[in-house]
Amino acid sequence: MPRLQHLKIACTLLALAPLSLAKGVLPGQIKNFVTFGDSYTDIAYPAADGGQAWPVYAAGYGNFTLYPFAKSGATCSNNLTYRPFPPVFGSQIPTYLEEKSNATINPNPEETIYTLWIGTNDLGVNALLTGSDAPDVSIVQVRECAVDWLKVMYASGARNFIMQNIIPLDLTILYSNYSYPNRYWDAQRNTTEWNVYMRELAKAGNEITLLMLQALAPTLPDAHIASFDSHGLFTDMYNHPQNYLNGTAPLNVTGCVNSCIFALNESTGDAGDCTVAEGTDRDSFLWYDELHPSEQSDRIVAREITAVMKGEENQWVTWLS
Q: Its domain of life (predicted)?
């Protein structure tokens, strides 16, 4: 058989292959998205970035219907790293399943994508970095928990997923080597040690998660799983702010919009010595405060996630199935 005929047959078979064998979602397929996570994603917590959270922007950019379940302060599971806030497991997932069961929400699974951005509170102060209430818990368990979210959502009928990995937390002011006593931690610490340890936790956590997702993807028929490289995106924003920040003040990746310096061991209930950028100067900053991305950074996240949900090519995403 001539080689051209072989090529035609191969192309025909590829065209007839089930869509479930293709990687990623199709352009125009996604009309809804459901979000899980912490303050980075919680739309009801404007103090996280001083403005609108990225899912609100993404809903507008892509004309999507948003179903938000992320909660400020959340960890993946309070059984692993306890914090007195609604975790993904134990609160956010049960709330979603209850609303799905009673038909409060009923998005078509084929037209819906599910996102998870979690890990900041698991890795940080009062958790892995400083010692959690469960001393045997490691980065392995907390990232396995994040992957378990995907398994539970798949079992509930979800098929399209974006797993947003951990940002370079060592570049935030809280975990930098030049950090100061602030609203999140004003006790004594070795800032260099924290910076190095957090860099390793974030990088190791992301690699562990990716390996787990790569192993999981082939076992879930019809699933489309994206690994979104938040770490790479924020690293690029840090290194090349001129490509992302557009405020009227000098571009700034080492300070923040709302900076509050405290005396060592001062009560964080006090006001602190605060400096706050106003107006369009705010969009010159990568960080809103010592831990959270700025609203301009959130706009960038929204832009990139929207492209993924639209089925467009994007340098920050890897489709695993």
A: Eukaryota
